[in-house]
Amino acid sequence: MEDTSAMDIQRTASLLKLLGDPTRLTMMKLLKSHECCVCEFVAIFNMSQPAISQHLRKLRDIELVREERKGQWIFFSINEEHEDYPFIRNILEHLPLQDDLVTNLEAKGLRISCE
Amino acid sequence: MEDTSAMDIQRTASLLKLLGDPTRLTMMKLLKSHECCVCEFVAIFNMSQPAISQHLRKLRDIELVREERKGQWIFFSINEEHEDYPFIRNILEHLPLQDDLVTNLEAKGLRISCE
DNA sequence: TGTCCATATAAGTATATCGTTATATGATTA
DNA sequence: TAATCATATAACGATATACTTATATGGACA
């Protein structure tokens, strides 16, 4: 029988491992203040669309983010209902705002809006 | 308003990556309440001595832990002076105590003490 | 001084991770 | 319905990671 506290360590370690990638960590910080769609992330990170899609899948697999289709696009947002969200929010609050990434997108006319 | 002591995304990501390993995360949690030497970790994690040594080196490389020789042994402790220690402490406080690992060591007579 | 013991490093291997390009999927819309 | 667009998946390669075993190092102390 496994010790339940060891499982907590285990789960926390895999959560931290997921957040321990600069692309995913920035994604999470960004999503804390803005919903974003895949193509926006592609523009922000200057990375291929599949690479972005794979990062988002990892975040979604453990339900750190949610997706919602709006018109042509699928928007991702932080799942504030996640059991570990308070813990995650704590981590994200230690990071500098990444809003300039979105501002730059807007400046280039690449920001998607669905109003 | 965001916390003023904002951490660099890149540096935070590599810190989280380091902590995102169950062995190292447990080590850090343990070190928060007990100094431990390498051979104690070997007994606790049931892992080879070089494996333990390599994990500790990673933690020491970014100065999360300090080492101090006491007699034959080298004891490791948490570096509370680390710039990011408050952040790290926050993470560790989210974890269940791992003191039973040390208690079990004592029960087996494997706990090293230097008095 | 020489031996012993704890720890560190070296070298090698298996697996994981993160990117790529090519292709599939599936909703939207013309 | 067919074309289009955004996104997902597949397949693959390069590099990183986390172990292993073998060996080196270096302080403690007989």
Describe the structure.
The structure is a homodimer of 115-residue chains. Chain A has 115 residues and is of the alpha+beta class. Chain A has one domain (4-107): Winged helix-like DNA-binding domain superfamily/Winged helix DNA-binding domain (Arc Repressor Mutant, subunit A, Orthogonal Bundle), CATH 1.10.10. Helices cover 58% and strands 12% of the residues of chain A. In chain A, strands 1-3-2 form a 3-stranded antiparallel beta sheet. In chain A, β2 (65-70) and β3 (73-78) form a beta hairpin. In chain A, α3 crosses α4 (49-61). The interface between A and B is medium-sized, with 28 and 31 residues. The structure holds a DNA duplex (30 and 30 nucleotides).
Summarize the structure.
The first copy, chain A, is α+β, with helices and mostly antiparallel strands and 115 residues long. Chain A has helices spanning 4-19, 22-33, 38-45, 49-61, 85-93, 99-107; strands at 36-37, 65-70, 73-78.
